[in-house]
Here is the input.
Amino acid sequence: MSLGTWLYTLFNGRLVGKDLFGNNYYRSRGMKLNKRERRWVMYNGLPEASKVPAEWHAWLHHTVKEPLTMAAAQPYSWQQTHLPNLTGTLNAYRPVGHEYNGGKRKKATGDYEAWVPD
Here is the structure.
Protein backbone atom coordinates (compact mmCIF):
# COMPACT_ATOMS: atom_id res chain seq x y z
CA MET A 1 0.00 0.00 0.00
CA SER A 2 1.38 3.37 -0.95
CA LEU A 3 1.74 6.21 1.50
CA GLY A 4 -0.64 8.33 -0.59
CA THR A 5 -3.39 5.72 -0.43
CA TRP A 6 -2.90 5.29 3.28
CA LEU A 7 -3.08 9.05 3.92
CA TYR A 8 -6.12 9.46 1.67
CA THR A 9 -7.87 6.66 3.56
CA LEU A 10 -6.91 8.15 6.92
CA PHE A 11 -8.33 11.60 6.12
CA ASN A 12 -11.18 10.81 3.69
CA GLY A 13 -12.24 7.23 4.33
CA ARG A 14 -14.93 5.79 6.55
CA LEU A 15 -14.64 2.08 7.31
CA VAL A 16 -17.68 0.14 6.10
CA GLY A 17 -16.64 -3.41 6.88
CA LYS A 18 -14.17 -6.25 6.71
CA ASP A 19 -14.30 -9.56 4.85
CA LEU A 20 -13.11 -13.07 5.73
CA PHE A 21 -9.70 -12.40 4.16
CA GLY A 22 -9.06 -9.37 6.37
CA ASN A 23 -9.56 -6.79 3.60
CA ASN A 24 -11.02 -3.46 4.78
CA TYR A 25 -13.65 -1.63 2.73
CA TYR A 26 -14.07 2.15 2.80
CA ARG A 27 -16.38 4.83 1.47
CA SER A 28 -15.65 8.53 1.14
CA ARG A 29 -16.81 10.93 3.81
CA GLY A 30 -19.29 13.17 2.02
CA MET A 31 -17.12 13.63 -1.08
CA LYS A 32 -18.77 12.45 -4.29
CA LEU A 33 -17.38 11.85 -7.76
CA ASN A 34 -19.98 12.19 -10.52
CA LYS A 35 -22.75 12.12 -7.90
CA ARG A 36 -21.53 8.79 -6.50
CA GLU A 37 -19.52 8.15 -3.39
CA ARG A 38 -16.03 6.77 -3.82
CA ARG A 39 -15.54 3.18 -2.57
CA TRP A 40 -12.31 1.27 -2.23
CA VAL A 41 -10.61 -1.70 -0.60
CA MET A 42 -7.42 -1.87 1.43
CA TYR A 43 -6.08 -5.39 0.94
CA ASN A 44 -4.73 -7.52 3.74
CA GLY A 45 -1.31 -8.45 2.37
CA LEU A 46 -0.55 -8.31 -1.33
CA PRO A 47 -3.14 -6.54 -3.47
CA GLU A 48 -4.97 -9.34 -5.27
CA ALA A 49 -8.31 -8.48 -6.87
CA SER A 50 -9.43 -12.10 -6.83
CA LYS A 51 -9.46 -11.92 -3.01
CA VAL A 52 -12.55 -9.67 -3.08
CA PRO A 53 -15.67 -11.78 -2.34
CA ALA A 54 -18.71 -11.39 -4.62
CA GLU A 55 -20.79 -9.48 -2.06
CA TRP A 56 -18.07 -6.86 -1.64
CA HIS A 57 -17.38 -6.74 -5.38
CA ALA A 58 -21.03 -5.81 -5.95
CA TRP A 59 -20.79 -3.06 -3.35
CA LEU A 60 -17.49 -1.68 -4.72
CA HIS A 61 -18.99 -1.39 -8.21
CA HIS A 62 -22.21 0.30 -7.01
CA THR A 63 -24.39 -2.70 -7.92
CA VAL A 64 -25.91 -2.60 -4.43
CA LYS A 65 -26.25 0.34 -2.04
CA GLU A 66 -25.11 -1.54 1.04
CA PRO A 67 -22.89 -4.63 1.30
CA LEU A 68 -24.51 -7.93 2.15
CA THR A 69 -24.70 -8.85 5.80
CA MET A 70 -22.37 -11.55 7.10
CA ALA A 71 -25.35 -13.91 7.41
CA ALA A 72 -26.25 -13.40 3.73
CA ALA A 73 -22.63 -13.81 2.70
CA GLN A 74 -22.21 -17.27 4.25
CA PRO A 75 -21.25 -19.84 1.62
CA TYR A 76 -23.53 -22.71 0.72
CA SER A 77 -22.45 -26.27 1.48
CA TRP A 78 -21.72 -26.92 -2.21
CA GLN A 79 -19.42 -23.89 -2.60
CA GLN A 80 -15.68 -24.40 -2.49
CA THR A 81 -13.42 -22.19 -0.41
CA HIS A 82 -11.74 -19.40 -2.30
CA LEU A 83 -8.27 -19.85 -3.75
CA PRO A 84 -6.31 -16.81 -4.88
CA ASN A 85 -5.19 -16.47 -8.48
CA LEU A 86 -1.93 -18.44 -8.64
CA THR A 87 -0.97 -17.44 -12.18
CA GLY A 88 2.66 -16.38 -12.32
CA THR A 89 3.58 -18.11 -9.07
CA LEU A 90 5.36 -21.38 -8.41
CA ASN A 91 1.99 -22.90 -7.45
CA ALA A 92 0.38 -22.14 -10.82
CA TYR A 93 -1.31 -25.01 -12.65
CA ARG A 94 1.04 -26.64 -15.13
CA PRO A 95 -0.38 -29.67 -16.92
CA VAL A 96 1.66 -32.58 -18.18
CA GLY A 97 3.57 -31.40 -21.24
CA HIS A 98 3.95 -27.81 -20.06
CA GLU A 99 7.32 -26.25 -20.88
CA TYR A 100 8.16 -25.91 -17.18
CA ASN A 101 7.42 -29.62 -16.68
CA GLY A 102 9.86 -30.84 -19.32
CA GLY A 103 7.71 -29.99 -22.34
CA LYS A 104 7.07 -33.62 -23.23
CA ARG A 105 3.69 -35.28 -23.40
CA LYS A 106 2.43 -38.68 -24.38
CA LYS A 107 1.95 -39.48 -28.05
CA ALA A 108 -1.57 -39.58 -29.43
CA THR A 109 -3.11 -43.03 -29.03
CA GLY A 110 -4.91 -43.15 -32.36
CA ASP A 111 -8.40 -42.71 -30.91
CA TYR A 112 -8.62 -39.32 -32.57
CA GLU A 113 -9.86 -38.89 -36.14
CA ALA A 114 -9.08 -35.55 -37.73
CA TRP A 115 -11.91 -33.68 -39.40
CA VAL A 116 -11.58 -33.30 -43.17
CA PRO A 117 -13.77 -30.72 -44.91
CA ASP A 118 -15.82 -31.86 -47.94
Summary: DSSP finds two helices and three strands in the chain. Residues 3-77 form one domain. The two ends are 60 Å apart (CA to CA).
